Amino acid sequence: MLKTFKIGGIHPNDNKLSKGCAIEKMPLPEKVVISLSQHIGAPATATVAKGDKVKVGDLIGKATGFVSADVHSSVSGTVVAVDAQPDTSGVRKPSVTIAVEGDEWNEQIDLGAENIPDITPKEMMDAIAHAGIVGMGGATFPTHVKLSVPDGKKAEFLIINGVECEPYLTADHRVMLERPDDLLKGVAILCKVLSVKKAFIGIENNKPDAIELLTKKAAGGGYGDVSIEVVPLKVQYPQGGEKQLIDAVIGRQVPSGALPIEVGAVVQNAGTAVAVYEAVVKHKPLIERVVTVTGKSLASPKNLLVRLGTPVQALIDYCGGLGDNTGKVINGGPMMGRAACNLEGGVTKGTSGVLLMNDGEAKRKPSSPCIRCAKCVSVCPMGLEPYLINVMTKNGLVAQTEPLHPYDCIECGSCSYTCPAGIPLLDFIRLAKGEVMKIMRARKS
Amino acid sequence: MDKKLIVSPSPHIHSGNSTQSLMRDVIIALIPAFIVSIVFFGFDAVTVAAIAVVASLATEYLITRFMLKRPNTLWDYSAALTGFLLAFNLPPSAPWWMIVIGSIVAIGVGKMSFGGLGRNPFNPALVGRVFLLISFPEQMTSFYHPTALDGTSGATPLAVVKEAVKNGQSLSEVMPQFSYTDMLLGNMGGSMGEIAAFALLIGFVYLLVRKVITWHIPVYVLGSMAIFSAILWLIDPNSFANPLFHLLSGGAILGAVYMATDYVTSPMTTKGMLLYGIGIGVITILIRTWGAYPEGISFAILIMNAAVPLINKYTHPKRFGSVVAKKA
Predict the structure, then answer these.
(1) Are the beta carbons of B12 and A357 separated by less than 8 Å?
(2) Chain A, window 243-262: residues with a beta carbon less than 8 angstroms from a chain B beta carbon
């Protein structure tokens, strides 16, 4: 029996159209729009001004506050604007726009280096922070903050998230297949920073090639006193959810409202581990990432290595362009991604995929009355009652949904996905979650 | 680009389940039992089913059109299913006007008066059946034995047992006349769709495979019936029928698999389903053993339907992280 999480879960068709496509380097765009707020926390403060010349890897935004991240230039060229630009969702974010000229890299970056330097965990941590690394699975939480274990807590395990449970997305899969050594070195670095001896790599069983390759490589050792174990997992969405992954791999459930460190675990995405490797070994900041560009209405789905800030439109054009029958473009996967309205918005550190849906798939089905089939209750991975939160919120009882714990919702979308009546349950749970959290904060202060 | 992109919150894909597809699957699951009933009762079975379905659809259509002035809801198939299930609960000899009245009560009173699909507290088909049972007890309990030559030896096995116990006969004299093979295949007196245990179980497997229902409610209902009747039977096999007889007779399987599992009127959590299932099983055996009617599963389901809001209030799913972490 393969391991998996214990509560709820669904099995959407995985549609991994691009799983066989090797990572391709996307040509440089003419200009990039780099958001200074592409992570959770305070936006970075611009350190460049209009007219400045920058090289690849130069700092352009300095982290402000504890939960924030540095932002670097992904190209060389001239800063043409430092202002607010709409991201793919149309929200204006402080951004730096750079016209691309050549491809000149910051001298500090040593792309030839391959060995983990003999430096202290503290120095490694600084290197990670200075590289502006954030969680690349999509949550974009600054990695150096996640690695700072609070006083009184102890990390026992590092868990690498190689699940990629979102349908269509294959970026992590390709990274695991094509850069296994870099990934494992990244894992070793992360273990050293956290001073843990045991790391797990959780991979769903629909990626047998990645499981096999990494198991073989990890068994080879060479990572000091760190033991790395690949854990094949039963395919089930949302296994890539942090709490679900911890439950699946080590059988511990993170209590409501607590962080994974409460049960001794720290989770990092596979792509993040590779970025950590590059930051510590090559001094390379996070300036590019692998993005899956896919969808049934796209001519040639691909996995692209893209410089941050490249307009999403450029990615789509490179893969065959926006078809006439495209009804929706999603930044991320189909379950948790955000629908884009501005294709000039740039790729960010959290852009794992660009998904095109055709007209037929793009529209929601009309909803009909709840037949109380309880499917939403049985699929909720957090053990909530979506139908009840939905009906109370609709009937003006949102303040009374607190005992139903809407704040535990991870917004995986399993309830809406499964509802035979086509009720957008998650829309209303999000509303309840926001309202209840507001009430709870008000009570605290 | 002239064309506007659609923007909506996640998730952006859907399972493809629909109310319609679920209802359709239940109707499909009932077909094997319907075929058995055509085999035994001939054209009567087709007539009863056709009248019930048409009358149910007509009732729902007329009410939504002229009283509620809402869009037509016939295509969710729930009214058709209610009619079909009502037919399964009627004797094959039921006169047409009785079927029509039952359908009007089932849909009109049992469902639409509460606001339509999803809002009715009681299983509509059972509301219709019980209304008819109380109003027309004679017609509702006169069954003809499907393969008896004179076509008159009417009583269902449960009625025979009830009568025998009332007359002080020992069950050891009465029971040998029943063949479990006949009961499994449907060769006994009873309502149109309840006789064929085997065919009903084929439909149950279909519903499980299609993930329309889960195993919980049917297993809890039948399991608690078996356990409770086994206890009584062990105490005195001459006064109480054995568990296998209880499971194969009357509407036990039809009720447990197709009526008790009605989405709208059953609990939302597996814990709730356990309480609900045990309630139905125990009340059924209580009515069969000591009640005025030989069969009690319709009443048992309706009684437990009434308890569902209370059950939902006190049974919640196990929340993630509510269990204290185990040490690895």
Answers:
(1) yes
(2) 243, 247, 250-256, 258, 262
Tens of pLDDT, residues A297-340:
898 999 999 999 999 999 999 999 888 888 999 999 999 999 99
pLDDT at position B152: 47
Mean pLDDT of chain B: 91
**Judged by CB atoms within 8 Å, which residues 179-218 of B form the interface with A?**
214
Degrees, nearest 5: CA angle B11-B4-A341? 55
Is the pLDDT confidence value at B240 over 60? Answer: yes
* CB contacts, 8 Å: A419 with chain B: 17
Q: How far is A7 from chain B (nearest CA, A)?
A: 7
Q: Tokens 């590289």 map to which residue?
A: A131
- Whether the full predicted model's pTM is greater than 0.90, yes or no, is yes
CATH tag for A121-282 (out of 3.30.450.180, 3.40.50.11540, 3.40.50.2300, 3.40.50.720) = 3.40.50.11540
Contact A408 B319 (CB under 8 A): yes
Q: Are the C-beta atoms of residues B124 and B130 closer than 8 Å to each other?
A: no
Of all residues in chain A, the one with the smallest CA distance to B22 is: A420
pLDDT score, position A383: 95
Q: Which of residues 406-435 of A touch B (CB under 8 A)?
A: 408, 411-414, 416-422, 424, 426-427, 430
* Residues in chain B closer than 8 A to A341 (CB atoms): 5, 7
User: Which residue among A328, A339, A369 places its CB closest to the CB of B117?
Assistant: A369
Q: What's the rounded Cα separation, in Å, for the pair A414 and A422?
A: 12
Q: How far apart are the first and last CA of chain B?
A: 56
- Inter-chain contacts counted by CB atoms under 8 A, chains A and B: 168
pLDDT at B180: 87
Q: Which parts of chain A have pLDDT scores under 70?
A: none
CATH 3.40.50.11540 residue window(s) in chain A: 121-282
Instruction: Indicate the domain borders of chain B.
Output: 19-139, 161-314
- Sheet containing strand A227-233, edge to edge, reads A227-233, A198-204, A157-161, A265-269
